[in-house]
């Protein structure tokens, strides 16, 4: 028999002060948690949001302050003890203790693992930039500021690479190349026709897109530019190189604690770590592989999913009825992600795969929409520059995935 009710007078320890960790402490306290709450962060300064890094920070249009998620005053008002720049280094489940780098030991009654993910390195070369932390983004911004007009090569097929290429070409005087595997940027998430449309969008904005290509970054001597060797044999010489090739979870600190992991920490449909029936251990956000994920059981890598999971766990914990009424706050079963490139907001609902049938496709100059499906059901919808239609479709997809039901909202 598992223990079902965490003690809301106990000590809640949340490891990871990204969006998921911050939303957990806010939701838990607002739902009535009376005990002490500790939020453990491994970076200096206040917690900040990640989406602005590849859009507003590298372009120089925002300061770091604008990306902050919460103030010190708010943390005080929530009576949250924030351990800044003091990473968790070990979890001892036998003693219910999280050890921090400083030597502090936090004894928890309830633990939430929210330590997110880090950028996968494209090469071991420190001169190749990645964008996952504020320090990464500021370093890249400063490098772009200090370089005379030069060549920037971005290697990556996902949203972060495409956003970086867009932000740099739009706001800065550099020649930008984007190397991506599919027929255009973000093909895995938006499907081939929309990827080709995005490719044109980038090209209209001056980016040279090397589609259906991979790139290997090679060091030349000393301060010489880097070389990006494409798989068709061509070489791009890069003054600045950026890799956006995915992420991996930050789970080293739980390494010896025997927490079940696959791509991330495995949880049930409510975020409780599987195989811990007598403990209150939860995982949320990019480090977690939720059993409830609509797209099978993949690790989260999107903002809305992290926020929904955090809110769900926080409200359940704070209200002291974690096991009951979970349906009311359980994260939506329609995955959602957005991306901003140039003037366009791209919204993806559901999951698209390249083999899906295309049931509806409109490609205009500044807007686009594609409805993808398998058999009688919609798998995913991608819209560009059509926020009201996207909202309607997103709502409709919660009730039905039948193609005729979704096409009625297009
Ligand atoms: C550049 C960028 C742009 C993005 N843009 C979008 C977008 O437009 N739309 C969208 O849907 N999604 C976007 N995402 C994805 C989205 O931001 C993430 O899914 C979301 O931030 C995940 O939140 P998280 O709190 O789980 O993880 P994180 O934000 O990674 O936070 C985890 C925190 O825990 C810290 N940590 C790690 N190890 C430890 C430790 N041992 N002790 C203490 N703390 C630790 C980390 O440093 C980090 O601060 C973007 C991501 C990036 C990187």
Describe this structure in words.
The protein is an alpha/beta fold and 410 residues long. It folds into three domains: 12-118 and 247-328, FAD/NAD(P)-binding domain, CATH 3.50.50; 121-243, 3-Layer(bba) Sandwich (FAD/NAD(P)-binding domain); 343-407, FAD/NAD-linked reductase, C-terminal dimerisation domain (Enolase-like, domain 1). Helix content is 24%, strand content 27%. It is built from ten helices and 25 strands. The chain has helices spanning 19-30, 56-59, 72-77, 134-146, 159-171, 187-190, 192-204, 303-319, 387-399, 403-407; strands at 12-15, 37-40, 80-83, 88-92, 97-100, 105-107, 110-113, 117-119, 128-129, 151-155, 175-179, 208-210, 215-218, 226-230, 235-238, 240-243, 247-249, 265-267, 280-283, 288-290, 336-341, 344-350, 357-363, 368-374, 377-384. The strands form seven sheets. The protein has a five-stranded parallel beta sheet with strand order 3-2-1-7-19. Strands 9-16-10-11-12 form a five-stranded parallel beta sheet. Helix 1 packs parallel to helix 8 (303-319). The mean pLDDT is 93. It binds flavin-adenine dinucleotide (FAD). Flavin-adenine dinucleotide binds next to helix 1, helix 8 and strand 21. Residues 15-21, 40-43, 50-51, 53-54, 87-88, 114-117, 131-132, 160, 250, 253, 285-286, 301-304, 306, 337-339 line the site of flavin-adenine dinucleotide (FAD).
């Amino acid at each position: 028999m598992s223990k079902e009710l965490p003690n809301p007078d106990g000590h809640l320890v949340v490891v990871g002060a990204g969006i998921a960790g911050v939303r957990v402490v806010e939701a838990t306290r607002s739902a009535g948690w009376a005990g002490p709450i500790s939020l453990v962060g491994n970076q200096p300064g206040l917690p900040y949001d990640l989406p602005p890094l590849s859009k507003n920070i590298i372009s120089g249009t925002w300061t770091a302050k604008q990306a902050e998620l919460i103030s010190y005053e708010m943390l005080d008002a929530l009576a949250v003890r924030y351990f800044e720049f003091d990473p968790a280094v070990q979890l001892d489940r036998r003693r219910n203790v999280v050890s921090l780098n400083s030597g502090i030991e936090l004894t928890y009654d309830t633990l939430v693992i929210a330590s997110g993910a880090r950028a996968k390195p494209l090469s071991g070369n420190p001169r190749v930039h990645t964008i996952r932390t504020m320090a990464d983004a500021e370093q890249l911004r400063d490098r772009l500021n200090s370089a005379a007009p030069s060549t920037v090569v971005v290697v990556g097929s996902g949203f972060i690479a495409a956003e970086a290429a867009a932000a740099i070409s739009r706001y800065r005087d550099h020649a930008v190349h984007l190397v991506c595997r599919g027929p255009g940027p973000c093909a895995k998430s938006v499907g081939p026709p929309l990827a080709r449309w995005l490719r044109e969008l980038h090209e209209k904005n001056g980016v040279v897109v090397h589609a259906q290509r991979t790139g290997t970054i090679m060091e030349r001597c000393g301060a010489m530019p880097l070389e990006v060797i494409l798989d068709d044999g061509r070489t791009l010489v890069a003054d600045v190189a950026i890799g956006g090739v995915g992420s991996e979870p930050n789970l080293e600190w739980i390494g010896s604690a025997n927490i079940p992991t696959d791509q991330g920490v495995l949880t049930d449909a409510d975020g409780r770590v599987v195989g811990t029936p007598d403990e209150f251990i939860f995982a949320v956000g990019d480090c977690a592989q939720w059993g409830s994920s609509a797209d099978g059981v993949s690790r989260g890598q999107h903002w809305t999913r992290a926020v929904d999971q955090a809110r769900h766990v926080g409200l359940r914990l704070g209200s002291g009825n974690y096991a009951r009424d979970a349906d009311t706050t359980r994260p939506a079963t329609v995955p959602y992600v957005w991306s901003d490139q140039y003037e366009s907001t791209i919204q993806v609902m559901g999951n698209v795969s390249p083999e899906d049938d295309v049931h509806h496709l409109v490609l205009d100059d500044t807007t686009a929409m594609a409805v993808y499906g398998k058999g009688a059901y919609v798998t995913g919808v991608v819209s560009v520059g059509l926020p009201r239609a996207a909202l309607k479709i997103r709502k409709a997809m919660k009730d039905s995935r039948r193609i005729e039901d979704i096409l009625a909202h297009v």
